[in-house]
Amino acid sequence: MAELIAYKSNALIEASYKLTLQEQRFLLACIGRLNSKDAPDSQKSMTLTAAEFYTHFPDMGRKHAERELKKVVDRLWERSIILKNDDKRDEFRWIQRRAEYLKGEGKVEITFSDAIMPYLTQLKGQFTKVVVKNISSLSSSHSIRIYELLQQFITTGDRMIRLDDFRSMLNLNDKYPLFKDLNKHVIKPALEELNNKSDLFVIVDTVKQGRKVTSLHFRFKEDKQIKIPEL
Fold first, then answer.
1. Could you tell me which of 120, 38, 122, 127 has the C-alpha nearest to residue 81?
2. Most buried of 84, 108, 135, 146, CB within 10 angstroms?
3. CA gap 8, 88 in Å, rounded
4. What is the pLDDT of residue 124?
5. What is the dihedral of CA 129, 134, 137, 143, to 10 degrees?
6. Domains of the chain by range and CATH?
7. Which pLDDT value is given to residue 2?
């Protein structure tokens, strides 16, 4: 099977949204099958089998792949994306209609929404590339989101993110209002996982105004020595 690569526009990478781990994985598997050279309308609908899902993310176990697909179907319709700029707030769904699990066939049929397609196919140079095998062993949705945010700046290996923006991008809302809790439950576990299970080596420093943490300064590089587990 050819290497699966998902491309997302930078605006989508920095958008605010919440997805479970398996929803993240499912969407990456589907996005990786899109081709920016083809007409968007011809690519909006596709199917993904449990066997394909397991192939891309083997740590879930073959016998669990079908169950995880069913869970994705149940929840993905409720998920939305929020794009913000100085002038407006735009919110839209990932999919056009409820994804359908084809009973007895072990596969899901999905149709991306009209609103999301420009952020997946009309990239015009402003995009982030994610090689799916490099994040296939990550077991946290936060780890995947942080990986994408860093991958956006892979050519420099340096990214500063305001803490408020970081919270918004990960759709944390009022969760972990104290930085020590955010660090304990989100940042540290994600970086440990990235360093052990992805192709990135990452360190982070805090930037403060007085005693208050205001930004996160990530420095990172590709680490080809890290072995992606094969199950």
1. 120
2. 146
3. 21
4. 66
5. -50
6. 5-121 (1.10.10.10), 137-222 (1.10.10.10)
7. 66
Query: How far apart are the C-alpha atoms of 112 and 95, rounded to whole Å?
Result: 4
> Which pLDDT value is given to residue 112?
95
Structure tokens at 95: 């999919």
Strands (E), the chain: 5-9, 16-17, 45-49, 80-84, 89-93, 100-102, 107-111, 127-131, 158-162, 200-209, 212-222
3-class state of residue 73 by DSSP: helix
CA-based R_g, the chain, Å: 18
The token pair at 9 is: 């526009």
Show Cβ contacts of residue 17 under 8 Å, excluding neighbours closer than 6 positions.
79, 80, 81, 82, 171
Tokens standing for residue 15: 């958008």
Low-confidence ranges of the chain (pLDDT < 70): 1-2, 36-40, 123-125, 224-231
